[in-house]
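notes to self, project folder thing:

trying the whole complex as one job this time. last attempt i did each chain seperately and stitching them together was a nightmare. two parts in total, labels are on each line so i dont mix them up again. if this works i'll redo the older ones the same way
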Amino acid sequence: MTASKVGAAGKSDWLQGFTDALPILIAIIPFGALFGAVAVKSGLDIPTAVFASASIYAGASQFVMLDLLGQQVPVWSIILAVFAVNFRHVLYSASLSQHLERFSPMQKALSFFFLVDPQFATGEARAEKDKLTPAYYFGYAAPLYSTWIFVSWMGALFGGLIEDPAVYGIDFILPLYFMGLVMGFRQRRFFWPILGVSATVSMIAYFTLGNPWHIAAGGIAGMLLGAAMSKPPEAE
Amino acid sequence: MSNTVWIILACAAVTYLTRCGGHLIISQFGEIHHRLRAALAAVPTAVLTALVAPSFLTHGLAEGLAISAAALIALRFSIIISTFASLIILVGLRTIIG
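result (full assembly):
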């Protein structure tokens, strides 16, 4: 039993990661399909839309990129906005890096590519009660990543069939989606003050400095507020 | 179109940078100062709020109300339900108030 444990554990870890990913697929399928459809409606061709999902692999920021591509803003501001929206991943990788002692350098490098929100959550949860193995991590990543690409492709195929986006409100789906995303962070500390300050500064900047400065201005204002309100860990 | 491909590649590069960045920072410096940590934790809320805030005012009444609906629905339900429910509300409002 003990002699075959390593190999058997490796295999079952892979399978465990795979089955743990299945419920999450239901959650990401509509988003991937939506991304493909909106991408095609925004003027990307189908291969480019699929390429975006395969290379960026970060749902919210892919929508941000689409939104800004349609707004005739400078390229640097698109890249900066994507960087900002994905900035939370810095915290993910900082935390996850404590659990990667079983990963080779190449496996580490690859694991960070797949570090989407549910991947982080499951990685942390696994490390909490067991050792996080490459087999488990990539067993979870494989169905998630391949599903994301596949449904993006499907969405792009069928999105092209929608004649007039305004009829279904699809022209305005991104702000609605972003608003819902924002509310998902409401358990974080200082959520409401940050929301209020970022919204106010963003609107002022939009009407004074113009697009795309409102994103940076509102974002930095919220960050400064978070830093200013933060207290040292021992004081809590 | 190839211009778009380059933009996508750049977006992919900065995304990967954020995903290995924390690991690189930790292996270089150890702990992160609590104020920096709080600032980083504020980033998604702050940036997404800043992104969406002007569209609350710059479109019509139907759009403003639909964004409010999206926020309220997201308090109770998942993001996908919030998005599609507020989308239906938007389409309804547009046919009523134009």
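what i see at first glance: The mean pLDDT of chain B is 89.
need to look closer tmrw
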